[in-house]
Amino acid sequence: MVDHRLRVRSVRVVLVIVLLAAGVRLVQVQVLQAEALSEKAARQRTQQVRVPSVRGDIRDRTGGKLAFSVTTKALSWSPKAMRARYAKSGIDFGARTAAIAARFESVLHDKVDEPELLARMRGNEFTYLAADVDPAQEREITRDYKGEIGVETRIRREYPGGTLASSILGYASRHAASPDGLMHGWFGLEAARDTVLAGEPGSVTADVDGGADGVVIPGTERDLRPAKNGAGIELTLDSDIQYNAQRQLAEYVASTGATGGSIVVLDARTAEILALAGAKNFDPRDPHGPFGLGNSEATGVPAATVPQQPGAVQKLVTAAAVIEHQIAGPDDIVEMSDVGTVTLARKVGPDRYAAMLNAFGLGTRTGAGLPGENAGSVPDRAGWSATTLDELAIGQGLSATTLQTTSMYQAIAHEGVRVPPRIIKAIINSDGTRHEQPAPENVRVVSENTAATLRAKLRATASAGIPGYQIAAMTGPGDAQTPVTIAGILPADNPRFVIGIALNSPIEAAPLFRNVASYLTQRFSLPLSTELPR
C-alpha cells in the first residue's frame, strides 16, 4: 500500500516537472523568442523575385528591326491560396472560379478551353492558366481579379526576317542554367554582344505559399527594383541587299550544284558591310531543326570565318606593287598569266611584296566585329623559301577569307586607302542615347594614281560586265584546293560598291557577280558610266 502511494507521488512529481518545463518553453517561445521566430517565418514566406529586362533590338542601317523582344505575360493560379482567401472573405470559390474562367475565354477565345481551365482551377496544384498573353489582354483579364491571378512577365525574341542575316544575328533564348533567368545568346552577334543586349534584371519582394514550389501569392508584390533594359545595336547591313545576296547565292548554288559559297558587298568609301551571305542559313523558327543550333554550317559565317587560298584574285597584290614601285608600265598588268605574274613578283622582291601583303591586311583579322572571324594565314617573312614568293604571287601558300579579299579591292576603289570593314554602326541605349562606333583607322596601301591606274586596267580583265557600266574585277578559276573567286568594283569610274564572291565548286562565278551587281545598279539608280571600256 505504501509502495503504491509512493509511486503515485513520484508520478505526480514527474508530471509537475514536465508541466513546469513545458510552461517555461512556452514562455520562451511566446515571449522571449517570439520576435525572432516571427522574423524567421516572415523570411520563409518572402522571396526576391526577378523582374526580367527587355533585350535590346538589332536593326539594319535604315532602322528596320532584324531581332527584337516582345513582352508577354504568363497567368497562373494557386488553388490552395485562393481557397483560403475566399473562405476568409466569404467568397464562393465555385462561383468565383467560374467567373474567372469565363473572363479568360471571352478575352483569349479559342486559345483556351473554358471547361478544362475550370477543372485545373478547382484542382489542388499550382498551374499556369495561359502563357504568351499580350499585356493588353492580361490587363483585361485581371481587371476585376487583382491579387487573385498570378502575373509573370516573360520576354520572347522575334526574328521577323526569318533566315535574313540569321547566321550573322545568331539566336537568343532563355537558358535553363542561366543564373539571372534572362535570355542569352547562343551564337552570332546575339552571343558576342550579349552583355550589351541583355541588360540587367530587376527584383521585387513577394510572399510565397508554404508549398515546395514556393509559388508567389498574387497581390503581395512590393519593393520593386526596376530592371535595366538592354541596349540596341544598329548594323551596317542593308536588309534589301542582304536579302538579294542570300537569294541570288541560294539559287545559283542550287542550279549549278555548288557545295557552298559566300558573297560580300561593301560600301566602296566607308567599307561598311552591306551584305554578308552564305549558302546555308540558320532558321530561327526551328532552332532545333536541320538548319538549327546543331548545324555548324548554318550557324557560321563562312565569308569571315573560313579562310581559303584566294587564287588569281590575289594577283592584285603583284599588280599594285608593280605600279606603285614603277617596276613596269600599266600595260604589263593587263594580261597577268601565272608565269607573267611570277616574273613581275620577282622584280618586286620578297621584302616589298611582304610589305604589300601587310598593307592589304592579309594575315590579320579585319576587326569587322563578327564573332569567330579568322585572320587567314601568311607565311612569316623570315621563313620564306626560294619558292614562297612565286606561290604567293598566284594566290597559293596563304589563305584569306572572302571578306579579306573583298577588303583588298575596297582599297583600290577608295583611292588606295583601305578602310577596315565593320558591321556595327552604333549602340543605342534603352533611353534612346546613340553611341556611334569609332571609325576604324585607315591604311594607305598605294597612291591615288596607282589606284586609278589599277581600276582602269582591271576593266580590261572584267568578264562580268553590265551594259552601260564599267566594272573593274579579277577572277580566279579555282581548283581542288582553291575556290572559284571574283572580286570587283562597281562602277569602276565612280566606285560605290565592292563585291566579292567565292564558290566551292569549279563553276563560273561571273554570272552570279553580274546578277548581284545588276541589282545594285537598279536599286540605287546608279548613273551610267561616262566612258565605257575599250
UniProtKB/TrEMBL annotation:
<dbReference type="Pfam" id="PF00905">
    <property type="entry name" value="Transpeptidase"/>
</dbReference>
<dbReference type="Pfam" id="PF03717">
    <property type="entry name" value="PBP_dimer"/>
</dbReference>
<keyword id="KW-0472">Membrane</keyword>
<protein>
    <submittedName>
        <fullName>Cell division protein FtsI (Penicillin-binding protein 3)</fullName>
    </submittedName>
</protein>
<dbReference type="InterPro" id="IPR036138">
    <property type="entry name" value="PBP_dimer_sf"/>
</dbReference>
<keyword id="KW-0132">Cell division</keyword>
<feature type="domain" description="Penicillin-binding protein transpeptidase">
    <location>
        <begin position="261"/>
        <end position="334"/>
    </location>
</feature>
<dbReference type="GO" id="GO:0051301">
    <property type="term" value="P:cell division"/>
</dbReference>
<keyword id="KW-0131">Cell cycle</keyword>
<dbReference type="InterPro" id="IPR050515">
    <property type="entry name" value="Beta-lactam/transpept"/>
</dbReference>
<comment type="similarity">
    <text>Belongs to the transpeptidase family.</text>
</comment>
<feature type="domain" description="Penicillin-binding protein transpeptidase">
    <location>
        <begin position="337"/>
        <end position="506"/>
    </location>
</feature>
<dbReference type="InterPro" id="IPR012338">
    <property type="entry name" value="Beta-lactam/transpept-like"/>
</dbReference>
<feature type="domain" description="Penicillin-binding protein dimerisation">
    <location>
        <begin position="51"/>
        <end position="209"/>
    </location>
</feature>
<dbReference type="InterPro" id="IPR001460">
    <property type="entry name" value="PCN-bd_Tpept"/>
</dbReference>
<dbReference type="InterPro" id="IPR005311">
    <property type="entry name" value="PBP_dimer"/>
</dbReference>
